[in-house]
Structure formats: structure tokens, C-alpha cells
Design goal:
With about 300 residues, this protein is an alpha/beta fold. The protein has 9 helices and 11 strands. The strands form 2 sheets. Strands 1, 2, 3, 4, 5, 6, 7, 10 and 11 form a 9-stranded parallel β-sheet that branches. A two-stranded antiparallel ribbon has the order 8-9. α2 packs parallel to α7.
Length: about 300
Amino acid sequence: MAARRRFAEAVLEVAAGRQPLPRRAETAKPQGMADLDDLSRELDRWTQAGRRIDVWWRDDDATRSSPALERLVRAAAEYDLPLAAAVVPEGLGASLPTALADPSLTILQHGFAHRNHAAPGGRAVECGGDRPVETVLAELSDGRSRLADAFGDRFLPVMVPPWNRITAEIVSALPGEGYRGVSVFGPRDPAAPRPDGLAEINAHLDLLTWKGGARFAGGEKLVKLASERLADRRLARTDPDEPFGILTHHLDHDAETWTFLRAMLGLLARHPAVRWRSAGELFGAAAKGGAGLATDRPSA
């Protein structure tokens, strides 16, 4: 109360022309809270240019209900944002359809078992690797049927390959297996070939870093990456029409990751330059004439 009284008295002094208005002390950010000013300024530049950016949100590795998954779903509901959950079919638990019952959630397919089938010495891959194409496709088809049975119309036949890797042979065969799209990590290549009817909508900002084990990538780094990647679109250094994808892995989040996610969602939910899109909207539109697919682009 005394501090407020002193501030009020100072205001009266200013009104009388006797002294400048004192500055209030800055409120310290909570521990783990990133400074989002650079990202906010980049979004302001979009607004000043009379433009908007389509944003979507993909979360990987769902198999069953958990406190982390419940927390993720609550965050999406709190900000009224569409969320696409990439589910591992082989690990599908009986509790998951109930945990993901919110009609605003979209279900995508995250490979089949999230199991590495790379040739010796190769990088981890399930959608391809050291197996015949027919074997891989049969497995994926089995997974697709399981998800369609469990989630009905909320399941979108879009392949999210584990480790964000998929071979060209598997990509070419996906439309014949009933898939409408694929989602990996990184900017898509408009010049790359893509099978007719197969859309590519990727993720571009992974909140985790994976070298040496999954951990929070750091707020300062993520703000810098997000700002740079949005600027690349605004300045046409990358495909200016490509939606911007946020990638989370709820099972691997620590307290800092959750804190940053909520802060970023709060900014993106209220900024006029951002137009949130569901996976269904994006894949439906892109399948009518989108860009080409990069088939081996791991997340960073």
C-alpha cells in the first residue's frame, strides 16, 4: 500500500510539473519463461504487411492416457486451439480414445510400432529401411485399420513417420493404400515430386532437442528459430504459403517445456497475424494442389 501511495503522490507531482513520472519496477519473468518479444515483433511485421500465417500443432507418440497427455489436451482447450495427435497404432491402449475424445482433436497415424528397421549403420527408420516395401505397407495398413476403428471420422489417413523419415518407395505407394497426406519435419520443397492426391504439411519448430536424449531445446533458441523461420516465409526465402507447424512430444516434456509451450501458445492464440488451422483443413486444401515432399528430413 505504501508503494502505491508513493507512486500516486509522484503522479500528482508530475501533474504539477515538478518532476518526471517514475518508472514502475519491471516484473520478473517466472523461472523458465522465455522472452517472446522477438517472435511478437516478427508477427507484427506480418500484420504490418497485411498478411497472416497459417499455424498448426502436431504432437507425436500418443499410445495411452497419461497425466502428460491430459495436460496437453487441457492446454489446447484452454486456448481453443486445434491439435493433431499422431498415434502409434501397435501401442494403442484402450484408454486413449477416451483421453482424445474432444471433437476438436484430429488423429494422425504415427507409423505402426515406432520400431527401427534401418539397415546396419543406417539412421533410424520404420517407414522403409531393411524390409520389402510390401511388408512395410501391410504393417501400415494394419495400423490404419486399427486407428479408423478406434477413432472413426476423427482419424485422418495421414502418415507421420517415426523419426520423421520415410523412403521414396513408401511415399509413392501411400495414395494407393488410402492415405491423403504425409507429415515430416522441415520446410517442404515445392520442386520435389509428389504423388497425385498426397499432401505434405510439415512441422517446423520442435520444442525438444534429441542429441544425447530428449530435453527442452531452450526458450531463447526456440524464439530465435521461430522468428527466423517465419521471416523466411515473409521474405519468400522459403515457400511463403507453407503452414508453420509446431511439434511437441508430450511424454518427454519437463517443467520448462510446459512453461514455454503455454507462453508461446498464449502469444500465437491472440496475435492477429496468426490463423490457426486444423490438420483436416490443411490436408484437405493441400491435397488439391500442394507442394512436393522431402522424404528424409529429421527433426532438430
